[in-house]
Amino acid sequence: MSQLFEGKVVFITGAARGQGRAHAVRFAEEGADVIAFDLCDQIDSVGYPMATPEDLDETVNLVEKTGTRIVAEQGDVRDLDQLKAAVANGVAVGQQPLMDIPPVELGYVSDAMVYLCGPSGRYLTGITLPVDGGLNLR
């Protein structure tokens, strides 16, 4: 059976639990390799417990059970350099990189996120999400 995202890589933030984990596992079930990114730390202004490193480890376990590859990174989405580094680490992992692309630029991060918002996203989410005020920073 052909998998919808076989040979593709998805970059998911907030991947340690909740919707982020659910998206990581669902993409993996459809054949995508995953770059998972989450802070795994508490922010003082957030009034509920945030994800932990153990939560991110569980996401890794669940994705690996699908037979696809995953690279998990802890970092802060508010830090562009950390986002770029997470994608670069995912690209460079092991003997077989997840992606064969030129040096990582911001565009690759935004392309991965915008995928769910475009027409193709309906195959995974059931809906096409609107994108408002987006920037093309390439």
How many extended strands? 3
| Series of secondary-structure elements, N-terminal to C-terminal | EHEHEHHH
Spatial separation of the terminal alpha carbons = 36 Å
The low-confidence runs, each spanning 5 or more residues with pLDDT under 50, are 101-118, 121-138
CATH topology: Rossmann fold
In the CATH classification, which architecture applies? 3-Layer(aba) Sandwich
Oligomer: single chain
Give a description of the structure.
By secondary structure, the chain is an alpha/beta fold. It has a single domain (9-125), classed as NAD(P)-binding Rossmann-like Domain (Rossmann fold). Helices cover 37% and strands 12% of the residues. The protein has helices at residues 18-29, 53-64, 80-92, 106-115, 122-125; strands spanning 9-13, 33-38, 70-74. It has a 3-stranded parallel beta sheet, with helices on both faces. Helix 1 (18-29) runs parallel beside helix 2.
What are the defining features of this structure?
12% strand, three-stranded parallel β-sheet, 138 residues, 3 strands, disordered C terminus, globular, alpha/beta, Rossmann fold
In short:
With 138 residues, the protein is an alpha/beta fold.
Secondary-structure blueprint:
Elements: E1 9-13, H1 18-29, E2 33-38, H2 53-64, E3 70-74, H3 80-92, H4 106-115, H5 122-125
Parallel strand pairs: 1-2, 2-3
Helix pairs in contact: 1-2
